[in-house]
Structure formats: structure tokens, C-alpha cells
Amino acid sequence: MTPPSEDDAPVQPPEAPEPERLPETRLGKRKPDEEEEEELPRMTLLEHLDELRRRILRTLIVVVVAFFGCFAFAEEIYTFLAKPIEPHVDQLVFDGVADPFIVQVKVALLAAVFLTSPYLVAQLWGFVSPGLYRREKRYAIPFIFFGSFFFLGGGAFGYFVALPFAVEFLVNMGLNANWDADIRIERYLNFAVNILLGLAVMFQLPIVIFMLSQLGVVTPRFLMRHFRWAVLIIIVLSAVITPTPDVVNMTIVAGPTLLLYLVGVGASALVQRRRKRIEDEGEE
Fold first, then answer.
1. Residue 147 near residue 153 (C-beta atoms within 8 A)
2. CB 61 within 8 A of CB 111
3. If we measure between CA atoms, which residue out of 277, 145, 149, 269 comes closest to residue 213?
4. How confident is the model at residue 152, as a pLDDT?
């Protein structure tokens, strides 16, 4: 037998290259960029509309359930809402047969919205979260907490500060002109709801700015460069919420809102700093 030649020797498979070792950081071994590997779920327009419909339906169900619970205490809630105007008028009146029932429905619905505000904010987060990366979804709990906090805080600020000042200015304007105050319950309630809900929504400004910054829509530089336009828009909205020619009442609403805008700018700066740190670590 002839000895096997070198050509007949078994071919050894090439050794697999060692995986590239990523640089280490202070927090341990660096992980690959998740955003480059993670693919966001793609949804068609109809799927977005169906998701929106389902979340709106859930929200309505929760609000309606809370409404029936609050309706049992509608008189107590109305008494609470009427306290800012009680020192200025003897009593509120109604001129329609159905006005008392309509008023109780409105106060119960208002209370239900504030009572279920954490759930409303959670549904809002659930709707926008499919468009976020995994690391961005970690902000769910802070978003729901601070969103609810600012919503309730805006309503509290409206009740304890803005509403009493606005009522005092408007009612005393008529009383100083020797006019009799004959204020309808429903009209006062509409005025109070406008202020309470308006401020509750305006106090969401830092949360909105934070989310837009997280999505890369706005930056601190952009926000400060357009600060004058922000002041103008806030003043206009404040004039709508408190429709009085009094600069003091308008400032009571516009001042805290401008402060919240600056808080949002600070949150945007934190988002940008964190994003820049991640990019710098990725280049190492």
C-alpha cells in the first residue's frame, strides 16, 4: 500500500475568529447599540386608528364608571366648587327647570376626570409607546407619575389661586359699579370648569417637552431660541382661560406656565446630555 499523500489529508476547518471585545466603561462591559439592532413595530394607519379607538373606549368606560360614583356626591362636590364665589354673592340662582340636574352632571363628570387622570395618562402613554425604543419605554412610570402630578397640580392651582382671584376681580367690578349680582349656577360652573381643566392641561407642558425631546423633535437650543413665541402663546392661552382685562389675573396663570416651560427646557437639556454621553461611549 502506498502511504497517503499530503493532498489526501483531512482538511481542518478554519478557526472561528474571536468575537470583537467591546470597550469597557465605568458601568461594566459595554453593550451594543440596541437602537441599531432593535426594529420598531410597523403599524398601518388603520392599525393606529384601531389602537386609538380601543384606548378611547377603555378611557370612556373608566370615566363613566367613576362618573356614577361621583354623581352620588354631586351636591358635596358642587358645594366645594362654589366656595370661591360664596364670599362675593349671597347665593347663586338658576332659571331653567333642568339646570340643577345639568349642574350635578357637570360637577360629577369634572370630578371623574380628575379622579381617573392617572389612568388617562397611562392610556396616553400606551398609545405612544409602540413608537419608542426599549430604553425609552423605561420612562413609563415617571411619565404616568409626573403626568398625573402636574394634571392634579394644575387643577389645585386653579382652584386655590387662579379661580378665587378671577372671581374676585370680575364680581367686584360689577359690585363697584352698583350693579346687583344675580349669577346663574350653570354659568359660574362653566367658568370654573374652564379654569380648572385649562390649567390642568397647561401644566402638562414639561411632560410634553420631555417627550418631544426624547423623540428628538426639539432641543434646548430650539426651545430657548423660540422662547419669545412661547411667551406669546402662553399669554394668549392664559387670556382664554381667564378672560379678564386684569393683568394680575393673567399673570397668575401665565407666570407658573412660563416657569413650567423653563422646567421643560431643563428636562430637555438632561435628555440631550444623556444622548450625547451614549453617542460618545459608542465612538470609543
1. no
2. no
3. 269
4. 95
Contact 152, 239 (CB under 8 A): no
Number of Cβ within 10 Å of residue 231's Cβ equals 14
Q: 54-73: per-residue pLDDT in tens?
A: 999 999 999 999 999 999 99
* 39 exposure class (CB count in 10 Å sphere: 0-12, 13-18, 19+): exposed
Integer Cα distance of 78 and 160 in angstroms: 15
Question: Buried b / exposed e across 41-62, counting CB within 10 Å, b at 16+?
Answer: eeeeeeeeeeeeeebeeebeeb
Tell me how long the chain is.
284
Give the pTM: 0.78
Helices and strands (H, E) in the chain, number of each type = 12, 2
Three-state secondary structure call for residue 28: strand
Amino acid 91: pLDDT:
83
Which residue stretches of the chain have pLDDT < 70? 1-43, 131, 243-246, 282-284
Cell (9 digits) for 153:
397640580
* Angstrom distance (rounded) from CA 133 to CA 216: 12
* Amino acid 18: pLDDT: 52
What is the identity of the amino acid at 72? Answer: A
